[in-house]
Amino acid sequence: MKRQLWASPKAAEGCRRPRRWRDESTRWLALVCGWLFLAAVTSAAQDFAFTEQPDRLVITHGARPVAHFVFKDAAILRPYFTHVHAPDGSQVTRTHPPVAGKDAVDHATMHPGVWLAFGDVGGNDFWRNRAVMRHERFTAAPVVKAGQLTFATETSLLATNDTKLATLGSRFVVSRVGEGFLLTWEASFTPVVDGFAFGDQEEMGFGVRVATDLTEKKGGVITSSSGATTAKGTWGKTANWCDYSGVLGDRRVGITVLADAKNFRLCWFHNRDYGLMVANPFGEKAFTKGAPSRVAVAKGEAFRLRFGAWIHSSAKDGVVAVPSAWERFQQP
């Protein structure tokens, strides 16, 4: 006897669900598919993204700006981040270039936003743009994966006579941490000449210049990991981190400079009431009036530094979770 694999329409009729049930099932299936699609679109819309331009990367998160990473500038002779924003869209670094009448316009080419620079490397001044930190290439192309943006670059440190002193390899990570964006900058210096050394002055290390409305002069607050406050109270003191924040509307907005505990020594902080904050591991004489420090690195050896900036916005009267951001920063 031939076996029937499919029921005939008449035989299956008694097994059919009522039309109302079929309509409801279809409707629920459509709703579930819609929710899944919306969740996927929302997640994609809230991811980091970037646009490559001839002189910079423009970084966004969802529809909002995060920062510009500028690697080619005729006036500022080193890579830097500018137009830095918190997740709610608040601008956290000073407008670049600063606007006369709204911003203090001092040090426009030295304090562009967030940067790594040194006033004395073998007598060469990379802070004041008298020597060049020249971007050579991206050693790892920008990519967004697992909720974070990563990229890496190679930079040449050129003396004032154009002699190459060292290669700087930088690895950058931008991620969402709590109520802020965490930017990490891991730097590895490899000298190509003998006698390479970091000198001793205030203008060395990882710096930020905060937006005018966040400055201490405008009511902003500086707090360090030791509990010290104010520019005067934190200047020249060592700390794991310092936070600079102020109130914009109903939000407390700010930026925390983080120094990796694995750096070769603790950083002194060069903080000012007009909005400057610098983590400096090289200023022993500059900050303590002790003996001048000279940190030599042998030709061909790698010297590592790692810093972070947590760019945050939270409720005006809430708790800013800097210690949590610090702990996250320590787990690269």
Describe the structure in your own words:
The chain is mainly beta. It has one domain (47-329): Beta-galactosidase, Chain A, domain 5 (Distorted Sandwich), CATH 2.70.98. It contains 5 helices and 19 strands. The strands form 3 sheets. It has a 9-stranded antiparallel sheet with strand order 1-2-3-4-5-11-17-16-13. The longest helix is centred in the first third of the chain and has 27 residues, at 19-45. 39% of the residues are buried. Residues 1-17 and 28-44 have low confidence and may be disordered.
CATH topology term: Beta-galactosidase, Chain A, domain 5
Overall morphology? globular
Helix content: 10-25%
Strand content: 35-45%
| Low-confidence regions | 1-17, 28-44
Number of H/I helices: 5
CATH architecture type: Distorted Sandwich
Number of domains: 1
What is the H/E order? HHEEEEEEEEEEEEHEEEEEHEEH
Q: What is the CATH first-level class name?
A: Mainly Beta
Largest sheet report: 9 strands, antiparallel
Mean pLDDT: 90
Termini separation: 70 Å
State Rg: 26 Å
